């Protein structure tokens, strides 16, 4: 890619020091930054996933407030457009802001992305009509899309070679807590009190409290503010500093990483072989696409994400609306979705402990099977059978979330440091359009398809994504600069 991108090897003494620094960092076998930084990034991700999932339950009340004549059975007709434009915002944010992170640094852009997301959430809390709601969701999406790309990039560059998926999954645990908070808070604030098991008896929505959805987005803005203040403490990625020939600062951070690692282990492994490095102020999208190796990787990863996001967002952002289209009452539908978030938390913890035991792409077929099983259990349980639907929902959430952190790590691993954030933006950022297109096309058909076919359709897209992923490159437990020079 160096010849295609116009990058040149770092020469002379700088080249030798840079290669030696990367080799020193690569031999560290454990997480060697403060775990506080995991928490700092995690708080930001908790907010971003709160924002992704807060629309799941709350949108029915939002639609009733902002759209004349919107009722639970027809709310699915109005979900597609804000979801599509929210995900289109992901594309805009990822494509515009991610290259800036390749050029100006990971940490500073991580601050910018969270500021944009928080402002979008605050705007959402204050809107008075459907058009402005859509605009606010689009602005929020701009921040979220870039944040997803930059967090995955940052983690891949500072985590040990044998733990990139593991520590991406650790962040994903915070994501699961954000989704849990978004859905359960929506159930409490935006559905009426309903006798269990058809809802929550302590839910507070009703004629005297119809603004619960506004409180949801206000909470999101507050979470964003906390994340912004904490992210000022993050160090810059040493790998990125080296591409900018800022060797002295990179060496300070790597030395601190070594010293922190030695507090937990008795000795560090020997320094491995040095790999020739390339300097560059950030490769352009055309630089990536002109290189045959990275073009092939981009096509495979983009198709995988585009197709899989039809499943992920169809369920993650739309399950409550989907269930109401299948004749579930809104409180019951929201409760089923809320129970599913326990599966999300469980699978995030599972990914942390076991995500490194298989190559990244092998998790997708397993995820597809579990997603189909969970969806069919819900479909065959029918309305009024909370126990069956709850079990199905938990399995469903386990299924469509199982592969996500491993494939985030995989996507970042497939690009060189000088273009890692940009490459991730191409595949994951643009890939998010699949989620919007899928729900926009499928949602109006749900009443005609029926429960079984609906969940088979959603699960089927993940099957297709799993097949596409098998064409990809193996990256597990390999050095980043070997996988993507």
From TrEMBL:
CDD domains: MFS_SV2_like (cd17316). The chain crosses the membrane at residues 30-50, 78-97, 109-127, 133-155, 167-193, 213-232, 299-323, 335-355, 362-380, 386-411, 423-446, 452-471. InterPro entries: MFS_dom, MFS_sugar_transport-like, MFS_trans_sf, Sugar_transporter_CS. It holds the Pfam family Sugar_tr. Residues 37-477 form the Major facilitator superfamily (MFS) profile domain. It comes from Reticulibacter mediterranei. This is MFS transporter. The keyword Transport applies. Keywords: Membrane, Transmembrane, Transmembrane helix, Transport. It is found in: Cell membrane.
């Amino acid at each position: 890619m160096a010849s295609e991108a116009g990058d040149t090897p770092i020469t002379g003494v700088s080249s030798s020091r840079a290669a030696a620094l990367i080799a020193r960092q690569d031999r560290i076998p454990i997480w060697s930054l403060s775990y506080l930084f995991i928490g700092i990034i995690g708080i930001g991700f908790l907010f971003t996933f709160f924002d992704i999932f807060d629309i799941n339950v709350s949108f029915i009340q939002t639609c009733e407030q902002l759209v004349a004549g919107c009722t639970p059975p027809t709310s699915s007709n109005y979900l597609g457009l804000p979801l599509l434009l929210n995900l289109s915002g992901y594309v805009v944010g990822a494509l515009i802001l991610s290259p800036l992170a390749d050029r100006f640094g990971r940490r500073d852009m991580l601050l910018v992305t969270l500021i944009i997301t928080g402002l979008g959430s605050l705007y959402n809390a204050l809107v008075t009509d459907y058009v402005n709601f859509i605009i606010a969701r689009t602005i929020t999406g701009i921040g979220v899309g870039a944040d997803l790309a930059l967090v995955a990039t940052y983690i891949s560059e500072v985590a040990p070679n044998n733990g990139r998926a593991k520590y991406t999954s650790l962040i994903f645990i915070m994501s699961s807590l954000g989704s849990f908070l978004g859905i359960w808070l929506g159930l409490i604030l935006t559905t009426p009190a309903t006798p269990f098991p058809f809802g929550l008896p302590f839910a507070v929505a009703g004629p005297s409290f119809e603004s619960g959805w506004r409180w949801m987005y206000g909470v999101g803005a507050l979470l964003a503010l906390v994340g912004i203040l904490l992210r000022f403490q993050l160090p810059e990625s040493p790998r990125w500093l080296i591409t900018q020939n800022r060797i002295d600062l990179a060496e300070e951070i790597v030395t601190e990483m070594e010293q922190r690692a030695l507090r937990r282990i008795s000795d560090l492994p020997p320094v491995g072989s040095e790999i020739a490095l390339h300097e560059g102020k950030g490769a352009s999208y055309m630089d990536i696409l002109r290189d045959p190796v990275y073009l092939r990787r981009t096509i495979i990863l983009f198709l995988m994400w585009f197709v899989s996001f039809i499943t992920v967002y169809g369920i993650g952002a739309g399950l409550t609306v989907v269930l109401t289209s299948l004749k579930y009452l809104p409180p019951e539908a929201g409760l089923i979705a809320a129970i599913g978030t326990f599966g999300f938390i469980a699978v995030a913890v599972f990914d942390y402990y076991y995500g490194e035991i298989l190559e990244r792409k092998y998790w997708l077929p397993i995820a597809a099977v579990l997603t189909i099983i969970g969806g069919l259990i819900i479909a065959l349980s029918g309305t009024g059978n909370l126990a069956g639907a709850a079990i199905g929902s938990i399995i469903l959430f386990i299924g469509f979330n199982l592969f996500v952190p491993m494939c985030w790590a995989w996507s970042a691993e497939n690009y060189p440091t000088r273009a890692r954030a940009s490459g991730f933006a191409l595949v994951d950022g643009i890939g998010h359009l699949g989620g919007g297109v899928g729900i926009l096309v499928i949602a109006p058909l749900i009443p005609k398809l029926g429960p079984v076919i609906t969940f088979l359709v959603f699960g089927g897209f993940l099957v297709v994504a799993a097949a596409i992923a098998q064409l990809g490159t193996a990256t597990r437990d390999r050095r980043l600069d070997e996988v993507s020079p």
